[in-house]
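User: Hi! I have a protein structure encoded as tokens and I'd like to know what sequence might fold into it. I'm fairly new to this, so please keep things simple.
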């Protein structure tokens, strides 16, 4: 009888957990969709915040009446603002981002030609952050003394260095002075691509890995002081299993969140690094399009950035809820 009752309770508990997870995922999905809608509205409005759309699109030059008429028809400038947004959003959902004024090509083609190298650069930098940032944070959290002091001091200094300064230093030392790495471009094929992207990835990752390292160190220290960890140590359980099962595993929950937000922010920082190293990616295309007032390209790349950030943030939120059930059952996030 008792076994049947226990089995019933386990089934009810499993159903409750699945229901809680489903509700949590629905909340996250709704929040992500709302964030995308608000973000796309702000991106679309940016063209009109710049002043007269015709002046912005023509870069302040006097244009022929027929060209102005064509621009008004293309961007539906004679329609009410909200209807223009709905029409633009419909085109966006169909994958139509308009035509570039600078490249004389569809915006989707401009983005497609440059997205690959930006993605590779971001993944490379994310790998550096994950390996060095999390690894050094764990070492600093577990080992007091010289290792902790050295890591804490170095990450404090590196956190304050902007990516463009890091890029200049790396170029001056490893490309110009030592000649170990190329100064410009992204290379063709592998392993040349990895060689070309090493310095840009390091420049992109340095400040972020310092943040991740410090967060990891703090999280590990907090877990080391937990009562159940101290109890395991006092009972003579070997340090290795205790550290792996109770310290590092639990410490990775907040680190996962910080890692996700950090990796998502790398996309926006690629513009600085790509300009410094002459990489023809999304970031450099965004800077060039902004200086040329090529608003279709600016809007298209901005939408891609927002989409990537929201998707990564949603994945991290969901994984955080899976790692820590208190998040989805506590009614919090």
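Assistant: Happy to help. Inverse folding works backwards from shape to sequence: for each of the 333 positions I chose a residue that suits the local structure. Here it is:
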């Amino acid at each position: 009888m008792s076994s049947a009752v226990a089995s019933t309770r386990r089934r009810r508990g499993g159903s409750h957990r699945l229901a809680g997870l489903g509700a949590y995922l629905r909340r996250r999905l709704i929040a992500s969709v709302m964030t995308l809608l608000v973000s796309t509205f702000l991106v679309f409005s940016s063209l009109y915040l710049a002043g007269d759309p015709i002046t912005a699109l023509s870069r302040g030059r006097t244009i022929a009446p027929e060209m102005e008429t064509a621009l008004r028809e293309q961007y539906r400038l004679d329609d009410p603002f909200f209807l223009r947004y709905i029409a633009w959003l419909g085109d966006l959902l169909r994958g139509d981002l308009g035509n570039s004024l600078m490249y004389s090509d569809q915006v989707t083609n401009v983005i497609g030609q440059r997205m690959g190298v930006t993605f590779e650069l971001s993944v490379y930098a994310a790998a550096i952050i994950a390996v060095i940032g999390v690894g050094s944070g764990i070492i600093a959290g577990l080992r007091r003394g010289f290792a902790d002091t050295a890591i804490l001091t170095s990450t404090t200094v590196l956190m304050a260095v902007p990516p463009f300064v890091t890029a200049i230093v790396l170029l001056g030392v490893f490309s110009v002075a030592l000649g170990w790495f190329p100064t410009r471009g992204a290379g063709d094929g592998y392993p040349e691509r990895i060689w070309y992207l090493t310095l840009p990835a390091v420049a992109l990752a340095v400040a972020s890995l310092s943040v991740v390292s410090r967060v990891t160190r703090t999280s590990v220290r907090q877990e080391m002081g937990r009562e159940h960890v101290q109890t395991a140590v006092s009972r003579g359980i070997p340090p290795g299993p205790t550290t792996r099962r109770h310290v590092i595993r639990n410490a990775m929950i907040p680190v996962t969140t910080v890692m996700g937000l950090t990796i998502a922010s790398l996309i926006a920082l690629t513009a600085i690094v790509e300009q410094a190293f002459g990489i023809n990616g999304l970031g450099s295309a965004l800077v060039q399009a902004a200086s040329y007032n090529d608003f279709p390209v600016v809007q298209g790349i901005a939408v891609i950035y927002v989409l990537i950030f929201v998707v990564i943030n949603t994945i991290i939120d969901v994984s955080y809820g899976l790692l820590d059930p208190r998040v989805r059952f506590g009614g919090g996030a």
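A useful reference point when you look it over: The first helix runs from residue 2 to 49. Feel free to ask if any position seems puzzling.
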